[in-house]
Design brief:
mainly alpha; Growth Hormone, Chain: A; 16 helices
Length: about 400
């Protein structure tokens, strides 16, 4: 990249802010409907199982289309695709609110899921192409924390809006917010444009570097990329156990009141966010991202295992949850940088679309496993399995590093 095209700190901050805003909205979308399920159940005369199908459809569409969207991101205009994704999710919500019926909600989950499949490939592609390398770790950490923020605030906002007006108006309002965000992205699309786009003869030469579908398949099936996929899948399993089932597990293990158990979960999520930010700063100050990932996952995994192996007082539980959350969160920027290090620049969207599908795979399988454990009265095993998967992440880090080293030697 020439000096004239080199991203500046100011432009890097602007790009990170825009992409993180879109990422916040994508995670906010996850929790637009679930907090309203009791209202939807009564108004639409449906069961909770039928409402759960809405989420299943959304996740299946996202899982099936994330890799194709990643390929499109690498071949088309990533900022425009990201803008279109935010607008499409906003429009989906507006239609749900204007025509409130179960079947409309179900149908709208298809375009919403398709739009969701754009976010990770487009986000990482834009960040990788337009953020200064020395700021990449912090950019990844802010991007990840913005998603956490969207998930955290959405339930509070939706319940407040729904009780102040009604659920239909609440959904329409959030959909309108998506259109406003899409407008902001559209007006600032030039800021997110690739600063290393070659011109003239350089452009003709660079076109030869674009890989075809066969080469794409070979790349995705290479060991470093497969290890990245497994990394995301393992962390999805571990975090599903702690984030979604720890409250029920604490209730079963200690007969802990739900309000108290939720305090422990809040501590875990808050510590994770702090860990992500700290990890972003650390990853920009060292090239040993593998060590950050290894030590972070070991510490986090041991803290999670401890909750399944020993009886704890509440103060000890809070300490274990905070350590687990902080150490795990600290590895997130290094995870992304490890994948970035083994990915050709022209394939960033494709690769991140593929590896982040591991989140969907883990998110489909893990709830069934943890739910079965709780139904069988084996609450402590929730933490044991989550802890084992957290520690097992180090195997994927070794795999990525070894395969990348072998590729360079050859």
């Amino acid at each position: 990249m020439s000096d004239s095209h080199k991203p500046s700190p100011v432009s890097s901050v602007k790009v990170t802010s825009l992409v993180s805003l879109a990422h916040l909205y994508s995670h906010f979308f996850f929790f637009v409907l679930p907090p309203l399920f009791p209202l939807l159940r009564d108004d639409l005369s449906v069961s909770y199982t039928e409402l759960g199908v809405l989420l299943v459809v959304f996740n299946i569409v996202s899982a099936l289309t994330q890799l194709p969207m990643g390929i499109l991101v690498d071949r088309l205009d990533a900022p425009k695709l990201l803008t279109a994704a935010v607008a499409l999710q906003g429009l989906s919500l507006i239609v749900m609110g204007l025509a409130p019926s179960y079947w409309v909600l179900l149908v709208m989950m298809v375009p919403a899921g398709l739009a969701n499949a754009v976010y990770h490939p487009a986000d990482y592609s834009i960040l990788n192409r337009t953020v200064a390398p020395e700021m990449m770790g912090r950019a990844f950490s802010i991007h990840t924390v913005s998603g956490f923020a969207g998930s955290a605030f959405a339930p509070l906002v939706m319940v407040l809006l729904a009780t102040t007006v009604n659920w239909q108006t609440a959904v329409i309002a959030v959909g309108g917010g998506g259109l406003l965000i899409a407008g902001v992205l559209q007006m600032n699309g030039h800021i997110m444009a690739d600063r290393d786009v070659p011109q003239g003869e350089e452009a003709d030469a660079s076109s030869e570097t674009k890989i075809n579908l066969r080469q794409t398949a070979v790349l995705l099936m290479s060991l470093p990329i497969l290890m990245g996929f497994v990394f995301w899948m393992f962390i999805s399993v571990a975090h599903t156990g702690v984030s979604y089932f720890s409250v029920s597990a604490f209730d079963q293990m200690y007969e802990m009141p739900l309000a108290t158990a939720n305090i422990a979960l809040t501590v875990f999520l808050a510590a994770s966010s702090v860990g992500i930010l700290v990890g972003g700063v650390l990853s920009d100050r060292t090239n040993r991202h593998d060590l950050i990932a290894i030590y972070g996952t070991i510490v986090s995994g041991l803290a999670i295992l401890a909750m399944g192996l020993t009886d704890m007082v509440f103060a000890s539980i809070l300490l274990a949850m905070s350590v687990a959350g902080f150490a795990s969160g600290m590895t997130a920027p290094s995870r992304d940088l490890l994948v970035r290090a083994v990915t050709p620049k022209a394939s960033m969207g494709t690769v991140f679309g593929f590896v982040s599908t591991g989140l969907n795979v883990g998110g489909v399988v893990a709830p069934l496993v943890f739910g079965t454990l709780l139904d069988g009265g084996r609450a402590s095993d929730v933490f044991l399995i989550a802890g084992v998967f957290q520690i097992a992440i180090i195997l994927t880090v070794f795999g990525m590093q070894r395969a990348a080293k072998a590729a360079k030697e050859n």
